[in-house]
Amino acid sequence: MGHIKIAFWGALALLAALWLLADPLALQPAGFFALRGSMVQLSGVLAMGCMSLAMILALRPRWPERWLGGLDKMYRLHKWLGIGGLVLAVAHWLWSQGPKWAVGLGWLERPARGAKPVVDNALQQLLLTQRGTAEGVGEWAFYATVLLIVVALVRWIPYRLFYKTHRLIAVAYLVLVFHSVVLMQFSSWATPLGLLTAGLLAWGTVAAVLVLFRRIGTGRKVEGRISRLRYYPELRVLEGEIDIPEGWPGHKAGQFAFLSGDPSDGPHPYTIASAWDPAEHRLTFITKELGDFTRTLRAKRYVGEPVTVEGPYGCLTFADDCPRQIWVGGGIGITPFIARMKQIARERQAKPDPSRTREIHLFHPTADYSDEAITKLRADAEAAGVHLHVLHDKRDGRLTGERIRAAVPGWREASLWFCGPAGFGEALRRDFARQGLKVAKRFHQELFAMR
Question: Is 250 within 8 Å of 276 (Cβ atoms)?
């Protein structure tokens, strides 16, 4: 989370500093309406900066993934930027419209208009002729953006509606780019602020076009077919196996991929529940019926169905130098640990070396219980040399940090890898932090919420 905060607040601070550098007297205005002009410019620059960066991250670029800690963290930053852009756009709109309302109500007196300065620059003259159009379309694009972002943030709105409408933000963004280019203070374009803003708008425009033409992640997509499906009714879980004849670059245990079958559904992220073997070229995915989309998968998926797989993504790859690891897979969050156990078992079989064995404890708290699934999980743990602790909520009660520490005496030298409900993970993080674990370096949690 630290890098997310640095990226978010750092971007805003940089843009604000460059804005002040471009106009050092902006915060020393001669009267309210001069202040209003400065605040309209500042809020507009910051809002478009947030929206541009959010649009760029929508492409799922490779370069920031590792620094941010995975695509899940990148999408968290994307969400923060969307919310930040929304708040700043509202502030921009209020600074623009509020004084007009106040003048209409008699609360403020409009200042006398002086003579318009003579404009010799042809480009500036052209932009001035477009001001009325830019203001009109920008206002409507603002209303559309507010509505679309609200649809994206409200979780009870069905995913299908979210998926179909979210791309329209790219259309609104392109209109707002026109609005910004025309209405940004002309003298600012020749400053570092103008150069950075121009780069963000240009990059964001390219990203918006790619989003509209559904070209996200094209370089990381391969084609496969569903080769096996298995449903566990006690768990309400669907296990699927996808055969990928060629093109998959391989993955590390703990990573995930986007799957898409029916084009109307769009891609959905799923953790890969298998180690990669080029000879078998198959991936396993496990899905639990949790939302409006996942509840329909069992009825819609079929053996032989063509599927597009995009990835791999994610940095929950179990890489550290700690002598022991603690894994916590809550419910369907067990998936990345299954993949890792299969990978360890394969490595142990290929190159047995007891001296390199790491002590690993896997805790699997679950509200639903299936003897068949737990039997398979125990077999995977035994093959990988992992100490498995299964806790059925109704039988064993809730898993707590205290119970983990009692079962793992050497927990102070361990790293903790978590996948499961976000609230549960945050509670464990706080609990272990209170007990002295260096959670900033040793607590690893995937923020598996792409909306």
Answer: yes
